[in-house]
Amino acid sequence: MRFKLLLVSKNSNPTIPINYQYPLSAAIYKILQKADVDYATFLHEEGYVVDDGLKHFKLFTFSDLNCRFKIKGDRMLINSAVELVVSFHLPEAAQHFVKGLFLSQDIDIADKKSKATFKVNSVEAMSDPFSVIENKVNNTIAVRPISACVAGIKNDKDDYDFMPPTDERFALCIQYNWEQKLKALKIPFNENELKVAINLKNTKPKSRLITIKAFTKQQTRIKGYLNFDMEFTGSQEQLQVIYNAGAGLYNALGMGCLELIK
């Protein structure tokens, strides 16, 4: 389930941090909490848990902001309306409820240096591409990330070593993360049937270094990639999870949001 939001600034010269992902994620949680405190708390503090109890998933993600802007230092100077895609792995029956949550809400994107407030001017429910896909095990979809896709392996310091799509381990990490999401949702899968393929064609992936919780003691940096394609093979239900919840790590911080390639 996904929605396209049109955001209109309530400030005359909106300025936001170039690392807007964390404050935008916090603003989305805030909207959810206004309607359902229990659900927002569950997403924020617990999420969907894999059997060992160590891995938690929020099962939502969002795209990069689509707008006209100028970069000044570590700030984005916005000079147009903003489009944002927000994607949830929720039953279709919740579509009208979730759409109503966002309509006419205010979204603050701020850190210690700047703040801009945007009103959600419209909410468009996007069509479900899986309604025309048969529920068989060998469906294949082609996608590209519309926000940086992050893949990594934990090192001895319990931090991630991030890798590019040109690394053969990238696809393995994306598939492992997909499998963990399916386990959390208790959706059965056969490891030999799920497949992830990276398609670089003649393009060169573009890296993006993103700072999370900037100007705090918890500040950290993650590295993701854009400008490449992927193919996922699985059942209708399995593909819906990766499409709705995002690929790779840090989905709830706006990483790994996907669009179908026509």
TrEMBL record:
Gene transcribed to yield this protein: cas6
Organism: Mariniflexile ostreae
Name of the protein described by the UniProt record: CRISPR-associated endoribonuclease
Gene3D superfamilies: 3.30.70.1890, 3.30.70.1900
Keyword RNA-binding assigned: yes
InterPro entries per the UniProt record, alphabetical: Cas_Cas6_C (IPR049435), CRISPR-assoc_prot_Cas6 (IPR010156), CRISPR-assoc_prot_Cas6_N_sf (IPR045747)
Domain CRISPR associated protein Cas6 C-terminal intervals: 138-260
Keyword presence, RNA-binding: yes
Pfam families recorded: Cas6_I-A, Cas_Cas6_C
Keywords carried by this UniProt record: Antiviral defense, RNA-binding
Biological role stated in the UniProt entry: CRISPR (clustered regularly interspaced short palindromic repeat), is an adaptive immune system that provides protection against mobile genetic elements (viruses, transposable elements and conjugative plasmids). CRISPR clusters contain sequences complementary to antecedent mobile elements and target invading nucleic acids. CRISPR clusters are transcribed and processed into CRISPR RNA (crRNA).
Family per similarity comment: Belongs to the CRISPR-associated protein Cas6/Cse3/CasE family.
PANTHER family: CRISPR-ASSOCIATED ENDORIBONUCLEASE CAS6 1
